[in-house]
């Protein structure tokens, strides 16, 4: 098995994370990820109330006795959800791992830490990761430009972002964005990460709750079939190409305020895509890693395949390169 600081700190078998995804991080998927030996996250705000979240946590526990966590995404809003109540539901349910995202989690950390909860904070830049370390998170998940959802405004891809973060941080780093197979896992470890986070790849599994039409579209798509919206609003999001995202980009190109496109990007419309399979009902998130996704396996098969193939790459092809180089050096000295 691939053992890293991350697997040791969080008590999982494999350095693979299924991060929180709105409308996707539900009990069936998270339990399957946990049972595979990886770390899965329920998405708190997918549930309509803190009480519903507590029930979803209990439902997940009926399917697995292995570690899993809850994602709590904290964003500024005119009518914010009751974050403190969701946080308390997490604590009262005995969850031991939380993934935070969005705003700085500093106001939530004392409560989570007092409850013995380890916190992974999702960041899109080295400067934000350093700040997260300073306020006391246990690990960071660092999102490269390739990721689905919000990649930040710096446009730094993982090949640069991961080692740049590893150079500056002492806490474990989870590499996120553009990773869908064993090659990405091995590359991330080589760049200094202690594990990888996958969203798009886990969306496209048997246990994922999204509609089959969405899964099949991810398989059909290439790495070029995403688009960036909200660029002009400085709130960039990467979503799948479809009629709605094209309309949003067209409106933005002429200059707009958020109110001009709000009706197109409403969360309820994206939820309809995932639940009903109407691919043009709204915008829906997918990363450039969709170009690497070519099947819809059970979660356990996916994780096992990734780990075995990663081990084969490390002990086989890469090791043979080192051996060949050593042999050449010996020959040269002789």
TrEMBL record:
InterPro entries from the UniProt entry: Aldolase_TIM, NMO
Keywords noted in UniProt: Flavoprotein, FMN, Monooxygenase, Oxidoreductase
Single annotated GO MF: nitronate monooxygenase activity
Protein name: Nitronate monooxygenase
Organism name: Rhodococcus triatomae
Keyword Oxidoreductase recorded: yes
Pfam families: NMO
């Amino acid at each position: 098995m691939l053992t890293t600081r991350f697997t040791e700190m969080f008590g999982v078998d494999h350095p693979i994370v299924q991060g929180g995804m709105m409308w996707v991080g539900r009990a069936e998927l998270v339990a399957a990820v946990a049972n595979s030996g990886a770390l899965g996250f329920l998405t708190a705000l997918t549930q309509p109330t803190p009480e519903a979240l507590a029930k979803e946590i209990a439902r997940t526990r009926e399917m697995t006795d292995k570690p899993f966590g809850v994602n709590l995404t904290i964003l500024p809003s005119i009518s914010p959800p009751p974050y403190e109540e969701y946080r308390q539901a997490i604590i009262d349910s005995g969850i031991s791992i939380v993934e935070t995202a969005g705003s700085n989690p500093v106001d939530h950390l004392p409560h989570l830490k007092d409850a013995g909860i380890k916190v992974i904070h999702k960041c899109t830049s080295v400067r934000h990761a350093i700040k997260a370390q300073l306020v006391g998170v246990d690990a960071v998940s660092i999102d490269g430009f390739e990721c689905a959802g919000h990649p930040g405004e710096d446009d730094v891809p993982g090949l640069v972002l991961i080692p740049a973060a590893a150079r500056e941080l002492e806490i474990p780093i989870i590499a996120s964005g553009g990773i869908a197979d064993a090659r990405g896992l091995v590359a991330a470890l080589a760049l200094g990460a202690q594990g990888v986070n996958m969203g798009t790849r886990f969306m496209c599994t048997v246990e994922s709750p999204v509609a089959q039409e969405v899964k099949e579209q991810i398989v059909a798509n290439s790495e070029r079939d995403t688009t960036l919206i909200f660029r002009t609003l400085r709130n960039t999001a990467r979503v799948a190409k479809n009629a709605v995202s094209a309309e949003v980009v067209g409106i933005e190109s002429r200059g707009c305020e958020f109110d001009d496109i709000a009706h197109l990007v409403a969360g309820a419309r994206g939820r309809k895509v995932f639940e009903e399979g109407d691919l043009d009902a709204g915008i829906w998130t997918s990363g450039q890693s969709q170009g690497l996704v070519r099947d819809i396996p059970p979660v356990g098969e996916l994780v096992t395949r990734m780990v075995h193939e990663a081990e084969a790459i490390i002990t086989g092809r890469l090791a043979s390169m080192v051996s060949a180089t050593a042999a050449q050096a010996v020959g040269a000295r002789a």
